[in-house]
Write a structure and sequence with these properties.
mainly alpha, two-stranded antiparallel ribbon
Length: 104
Amino acid sequence: MLLSVGRRRYEALSQRDSIHNYFEQMVIDQVLRASDRANSDSDFLADVACVALNRLPPRYVRHDVDMTFFLTPDEIENMVDKVAHAVNDAVDYVTSRDTESKEN
């Protein structure tokens, strides 16, 4: 378990709230850059973000600085490239599914 057993409930909840997937914000930012539709359609943004995040390995951190401190510039560039690729594929996938559902 990520949290120690002896903590008080409110402390455990606040600690749990600080845990997140490092890729989440990167993906959302990239979706907003890659698609005009995402800026006006929150459902589309959420769908694309979910598809893209499911194509990336989870990288859980408590603080983003914990992740970036230990990465080399090449590793950061590689992550940015993977996010861009996953988002582009996700935009295409969600858009194609929208088109298919409208045709049927």
